[in-house]
Amino acid sequence: MEALFSDVFVKSLKRHSSIKKAIQKKADMIIENPIALGEPLKGNFRGYYSTPVKKNFLIIYLYCKVCRAKGDDKIVLCHDCPKCKDETVKFVDMGPHDEAYKKKSYWS
Ligand SMILES: [Zn+2]
């Protein structure tokens, strides 16, 4: 599995350094099994997955195999999707639930 991390994700990781270990552990688990761990998002975030790190704190990510199978790459505008292998997980963002969902889109 290939894992990519957005600038936003990396910045957030620094900002939330107190739970960095928990985030990294969860990221490793997502890389192992992105579908089993993720909850598919709807609406503006169709094609994205979220997984809680702890109560009310989410990691948002994409799994290219799935975004392509569904044709969601056109909807979610998965950054560089055609250039990535199927087995690619893209860590997009993280944060408290409300904050993570407030945004209208990612990668733009
Ligand atoms: Zn993709």
Bound molecules: zinc ion
Oligomer: single chain
The CATH class assignment is Alpha Beta
Helicity range of the residues?
25-40%
Biggest sheet features: 5 strands, mixed
Q: Can you tell me the CATH architecture?
A: 2-Layer Sandwich
* CATH superfamily grouping: RelE-like
Extract low-pLDDT stretches.
none
Number of domains in the coordinates? 1
Mean pLDDT: 86
Q: In total, how many beta strands?
A: 5
Shape: globular
- Any idea of the CATH topology? YaeB-like fold
Amount of beta strand: 25-35%
Number of helices: 6
Order of helices and strands: EHHHEEEHHEH
Radius of gyration: 13 Å
List keywords for this structure.
5-stranded mixed β-sheet; binds zinc ion; YaeB-like fold; 108 residues; 6 helices
Structure description:
The structure is a single chain. This protein is an alpha+beta fold. The chain has a single domain (2-73, 94-101), classed as RelE-like (YaeB-like fold, 2-Layer Sandwich). Helices cover 39% and strands 26% of the residues. The radius of gyration is 13 Å and the shape is globular. The structure holds zinc ion.
Short description, anyone?
The chain is an alpha+beta fold and 108 residues long. The protein has six helices and five strands.
Write the SSE topology.
Blueprint: E1 2-5, H1 7-15, H2 20-32, H3 34-37, E2 39-40, E3 49-54, E4 57-63, H4 64-69, H5 73-76, E5 88-96, H6 97-102
Parallel strand pairs: 1-5
Antiparallel strand pairs: 2-3, 3-4, 4-5
Zinc ion binds at residues 62, 64, 67, 73, 78, 81, 84.
